């Protein structure tokens, strides 16, 4: 095998993987928000969850994208972990569609001969001004590249029939009985880890089988290994995520490992079932029969082996789902026990919840993910402001110092979250994005800047109070009452801002009159309190030094209202339904 042939094979594999990613990306963009709405609406029971996961993954050809959406919904409280497990089970069945597409269109129909003419259609659509047509063009180009890459892979693999010594060496690994089954299972697992794609490993397995390099039984054990390998990849991705992401990935692992265990125990009978169904449905030789062998890539035996392997993949995941779908609640309890919530609950809350594993395959889904994080950021900011109110009312020096340190900590957290969301948005905008997505990204940049300023404001109040204490000034009961009224109004403004963020995220924002109302009340309250304090100073009822700290806090609270109305205005410009 020459150097050029090796590089051609690697390039063909790269074309296949790139085509798969591009096709999935185009499908996800074309589906857009409808997929998320469908996912949230169709998971009321485990069976619906399975059907939902199957349907979405069959359409977008990416079980990973489905799983990430599921984890996002679990974190947002739209799905329970048990419901998410049902969707993940369905995604496992949906991903088997790829094997059938490759078997039918890549080996028997050889659709690669139509791939180049279809690329012309994709190019024409890519020049359209309509986003949906450009998304469809991406789907078509990805589809063409996938099958062109598969065709090149088939052509560039060496003919081991011309080198019987090498063929004999490869086939010798199949002569160790059940030990060979475990060897090829491990090979499928490792290959999936290396390629980071079970679909690519499946394609390679189909090529090896059709060329007669390995017998049907060993190809089946490789497919079982691929099911384990893809769960390890998911766990690696979730390792930097939050607790719910780790639990979802762990449930995927338990599902597939359980399936591989029973499939190995019943290996011979299971292969006999697969062979009987394949032979009965397609009128082909039984690939599990004694003495079955693939002699030529174009033979009936090769077709039977390819269809049999695809059938095994589908049956494995379907039977596994039918067994485990009734135990989703028990699986949820097991993964909750395995993946424990960190003891420091507060520290967990300060981590990014939705975008810790990096951008998704498409900017559209990534932007939705980032918006979840923006809402989470606003909730953390409101929690920090609550400590400012406590600090205003605290008279014990030690307790005040503890509250001041918390406010400083929350300011640092705001800085970090703003930076991490901005970094994520930078990565998303590096790809080609639609005008609508670009507008949403720009709005989020502005919003996280306002939220970071709110974090600064809480810390600014702590500094004002610290100076007051250093100069041994105190607020009387009437002053504290007025400051508490201002703090409560700011808290209402927070509630309104978060409600508008949530409504915008769901596509339900129509007006921000609620934000203008609370902003007007905040401005009026600031003016009344400040004017009353100035009159008290002029009348000699209040000392100027103590009043300065009071007015500074009132002004800081009013500025916080300005930041919050800015957030709602940014939302109105981009998200409000006209």
Detailed description of the structure:
The protein has 578 residues and is mainly α. The chain has two domains: 3-338, no CATH class; 347-575, Up-down Bundle (Methane Monooxygenase Hydroxylase, Chain G, domain 1). 80% of the residues lie in helices and 0% in strands. The chain has 23 helices and no strands. Helix 1 runs antiparallel to helix 8 and helix 6 packs antiparallel against helix 15 (300-324). It is elongated and about 105 Å long.
Radius of gyration based on Cα positions:
30 Å
Number of helices: 23
The separation of the N and C termini measures: 63 Å
Main sheet record: none
SSE order, one letter for each helix or strand: HHHHHHHHHHHHHHHHHHHHHHH
Shape designation = elongated
**pLDDT under 50 segments (min length 5)?**
345-349
**Beta-strand percent range:** under 5%
In terms of structural class, how would the helical and strand content be classed?
mainly alpha
Task: From the structure above, extract its key features.
single chain; 578 residues; mainly alpha; Methane Monooxygenase Hydroxylase, Chain G, domain 1; 2 domains; 80% helix
Write the layout of secondary structure elements.
Elements: H1 3-31, H2 33-41, H3 46-60, H4 63-76, H5 81-94, H6 97-108, H7 112-126, H8 131-156, H9 164-172, H10 178-195, H11 198-210, H12 216-238, H13 243-265, H14 267-282, H15 300-324, H16 328-338, H17 345-349, H18 363-393, H19 397-429, H20 435-470, H21 477-505, H22 513-538, H23 544-575
What is this structure, in a nutshell?
The protein is an all-alpha fold and 578 residues long. Helix content is 80%, strand content 0%. It has helices spanning 3-31, 33-41, 46-60, 63-76, 81-94, 97-108, 112-126, 131-156, 164-172, 178-195, 198-210, 216-238, 243-265, 267-282, 300-324, 328-338, 345-349, 363-393, 397-429, 435-470, 477-505, 513-538, 544-575.
């Amino acid at each position: 095998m020459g150097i050029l042939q090796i590089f051609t094979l690697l390039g063909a594999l790269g074309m296949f993987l790139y085509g798969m990613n591009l096709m999935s990306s185009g499908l996800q963009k074309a589906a857009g928000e409808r997929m998320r709405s469908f996912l949230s609406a169709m998971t009321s029971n485990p069976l619906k969850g399975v059907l939902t996961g199957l349907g979405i993954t069959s359409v977008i050809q990416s079980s990973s994208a489905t799983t990430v959406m599921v984890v996002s919904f679990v974190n947002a409280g739209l799905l329970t972990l048990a419901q998410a497990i049902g969707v993940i089970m369905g995604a496992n069945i949906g991903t088997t569609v790829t094997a059938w597409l490759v078997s039918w269109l890549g080996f028997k129909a050889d659709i690669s001969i139509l791939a180049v003419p279809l690329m012309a259609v994709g190019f024409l659509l890519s020049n359209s001004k309509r986003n949906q047509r450009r998304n469809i063009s991406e789907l078509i180009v990805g589809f063409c590249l996938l099958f062109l890459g598969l065709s090149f892979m088939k052509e560039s693999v060496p003919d081991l029939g011309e080198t019987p010594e090498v063929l004999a060496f490869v086939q010798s690994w199949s002569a160790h009985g059940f030990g060979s089954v475990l060897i090829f299972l491990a090979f499928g697992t490792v290959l999936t880890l290396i390629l980071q794609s079970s679909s690519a490993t499946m394609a390679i397995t189909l090529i090896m089988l059709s060329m007669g390099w390995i017998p049907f039984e060993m190809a089946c054990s490789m497919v079982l290994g691929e099911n384990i390998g893809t769960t390890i990849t998911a766990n690696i991705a979730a390792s930097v995520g939050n607790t719910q992401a780790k639990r979802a990935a762990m449930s995927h692992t338990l599902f597939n490992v359980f399936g591989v265990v029973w499939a190995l125990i019943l290996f011979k009978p299971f292969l006999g079932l697969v062979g009987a169904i394949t032979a009965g449905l397609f009128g082909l030789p039984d690939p599990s029969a004694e003495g079955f062998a693939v002699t030529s890539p174009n033979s009936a035996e090769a077709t039977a082996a390819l269809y049999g392997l695809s059938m095994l993949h589908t049956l494995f995941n379907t039977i596994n789902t039918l067994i485990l779908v009734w135990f989703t609640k028990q699986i949820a309890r097991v993964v909750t026990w395995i993946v424990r919530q960190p003891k420091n609950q507060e520290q967990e809350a300060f981590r990014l919840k939705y975008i810790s594993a990096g951008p998704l395959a498409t900017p559209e889904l990534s932007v939705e993910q980032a918006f979840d994080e923006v809402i989470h950021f606003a909730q953390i900011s409101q929690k920090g402001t609550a400590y400012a109110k406590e600090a205003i009312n605290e008279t014990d020096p030690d307790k005040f110092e503890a509250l001041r340190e918390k406010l400083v900590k929350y300011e640092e957290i705001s800085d970090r979250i703003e930076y991490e969301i901005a970094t994520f948005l930078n990565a998303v905008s590096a790809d080609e994005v639609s005008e609508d997505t670009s507008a949403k990204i720009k709005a989020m940049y502005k919003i996280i800047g306002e939220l970071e300023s709110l974090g600064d404001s809480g810390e600014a109040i702590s500094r004002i109070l610290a100076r007051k204490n250093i100069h041994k000034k105190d607020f009387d009961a009437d002053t504290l009452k007025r400051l508490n009224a201002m703090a409560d109004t700011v808290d209402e403004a927070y509630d309104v801002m978060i409600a508008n963020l949530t409504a915008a995220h769901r596509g339900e924002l129509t007006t921000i009159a609620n934000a203008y109302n609370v902003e007007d009340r905040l401005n009026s309250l600031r003016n009344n309190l400040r004017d009353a304090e100035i009159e008290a100073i002029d009348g000699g009822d209040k000392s100027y030094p103590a009043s300065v700290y009071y007015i500074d806090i009132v002004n800081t609270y009013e500025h916080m209202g300005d930041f919050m109305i800015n957030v709602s205005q940014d939302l109105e410009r981009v998200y409000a339904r006209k």
